[in-house]
Every structure is written in structure tokens, then in C-alpha cells.
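Translate structure to sequence.
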């Protein structure tokens, strides 16, 4: 039992690599393992959201044709962004092939992405009445998390602490699990804001590549959605934070140029 854990720990400990797009060091020692682990976490997250999300509608549920129109909008926007993402990050073809974008009936008002390129927009987002520019930003921001390998980075933290936890002396299984979980969560939380900022910047870059300026994106995030219907959840808070960050990016040509991440 300890030999595999030792090998994993040895493999992960020195394996910080610099992301070519963001310039930040990340734990990406075992990308295949980390991607598989991140995919499992993505599946668990979407199931958990289904359990806690409020119903998307009551007696006045949106008709099936309206839901289908929303899904078609998301599909069309994803198709527009795909070439821009592939051009920005040529390694995507080898890592994920293509993005797989879907509208999830169980995700509520929210978005999610997996390391393997699955992107889910909750069907409840339709109730916010978002413009196409807002939807484009939400899709682009999830693409950005995949481009920047944030899912792999987060799963790498979990794997690292799991491996290290195998060597805690005199600690029972429950306490070892608690210690490794707390440790990995603390590490992930320590870079969560950086990941969010990176995702915003990359999203602005992707949208610029399809003809939307940072100013247009910032204005759309402000007026292109029903703010009164934003959920009081972590996702709602992240939306408002992204709104402020993109508005800041749009305040000067220098910030916009930096956000483009051009080589």
C-alpha cells in the first residue's frame, strides 16, 4: 500500500510546471491521472448541484420549445468559440479533442467545466434572460478553465495530499482523511482567486478573437442579464466578481492587450 503512495508522492512533489498562457506554476505531474480524477469530481459536482439547486420553474415552467431554443443558442455560441480556443491553445486537440458543450437540466443557475473538455450550462440560466454576449462570456470562461488546466491543478492538489497522508505516523484512517482533505482544500482555495482572474482574462481574449471587445463584454455583463434573479450562491458571487474584473480590464488598452494573451 505504501509503495504506490510513495511513488505518487515522489512524482508529484517536484512537478511544478509553468503554464505557457498564464505564466503561473501549477502541479501538473500526472496529467492523465489528474484529468481522470477531475472528471470524476465534475460528475460529482453536477450531481450535488442537482440536489441543492432550486427548481428552475414552478407552474409557469418554460415550454420545451423555449428550452430547445436556449440549447441551440448555447450550441451556436460554443461553435463560434471553438476555433478561437483551439487557436489560442494548440495543445487542446491532443488533450481534449473538442469541447463538448451541453445544457444541464440539473445544474440550475450555474456553469461547470471538466478537465476533459465537458462544459455544462445550467438550464436555469435561461431565467436570467442573458444576451448572447453574456452567454458567450459564460461559455468562454468555462473554456478558459480548461485551457488553463485548472481542473487538473485542483485534482493534483488532492492527489498530492492523499499521497502524503499515507505517511502520517500513528494516525487512523478517519483522521488521515480529514487531514488530507483539509490540506488539499486549503491549497486549492489559496489559488482559487488566481484561477478566477485567469479565466476572466482568457475569456476576454477568446471573445476578442470572435469580435467582441472587452468594453462590449463588460457592458453586456452589466446590462445583459436580470441581476435581480442572480442566485445568492458562490456562482452568483463569481459572476459579479467577473463583471467587476472585466470592467477593470476594459478601462485601458494596456489591460485589454494583456488580456488578449497574444504570443
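Result:
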Amino acid at each position: 500500500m505504501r509503495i504506490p503512495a510513495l511513488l505518487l508522492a515522489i512524482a508529484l512533489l517536484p512537478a511544478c510546471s509553468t503554464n505557457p498562457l498564464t505564466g503561473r506554476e501549477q502541479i501538473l505531474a500526472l496529467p492523465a491521472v489528474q484529468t481522470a480524477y477531475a472528471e470524476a469530481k465534475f460528475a460529482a459536482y453536477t450531481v450535488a448541484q442537482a440536489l441543492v439547486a432550486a427548481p428552475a420553474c414552478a407552474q409557469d415552467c418554460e415550454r420545451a420549445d423555449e428550452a430547445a431554443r436556449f440549447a441551440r443558442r448555447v450550441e451556436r455560441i460554443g461553435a463560434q468559440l471553438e476555433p478561437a480556443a483551439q487557436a489560442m491553445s494548440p495543445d487542446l486537440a491532443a488533450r481534449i479533442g473538442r469541447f463538448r458543450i451541453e445544457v444541464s437540466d440539473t445544474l440550475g443557475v450555474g456553469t461547470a467545466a471538466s478537465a476533459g473538455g465537458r462544459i455544462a450550462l445550467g438550464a436555469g440560466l435561461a431565467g436570467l434572460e442573458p444576451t448572447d454576449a453574456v452567454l458567450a462570456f459564460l461559455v468562454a470562461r468555462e473554456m478558459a478553465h480548461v485551457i488553463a488546466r485548472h481542473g487538473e491543478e485542483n485534482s493534483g492538489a488532492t492527489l498530492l495530499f492523499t499521497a502524503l497522508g499515507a505517511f502520517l505516523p500513528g494516525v487512523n484512517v478517519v483522521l488521515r482523511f480529514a487531514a488530507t482533505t483539509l490540506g488539499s482544500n486549503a491549497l486549492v482555495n489559496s489559488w482559487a482567486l488566481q484561477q478566477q482572474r485567469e479565466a476572466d482574462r482568457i475569456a476576454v481574449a477568446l471573445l476578442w478573437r470572435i469580435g467582441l471587445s472587452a468594453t462590449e463584454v463588460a457592458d453586456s455583463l452589466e446590462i445583459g442579464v436580470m441581476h435581480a434573479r442572480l442566485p445568492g450562491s458562490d456562482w452568483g458571487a463569481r459572476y459579479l466578481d467577473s463583471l467587476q474584473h472585466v470592467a477593470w480590464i476594459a478601462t485601458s488598452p494596456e489591460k485589454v492587450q494583456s488580456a488578449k494573451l497574444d504570443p
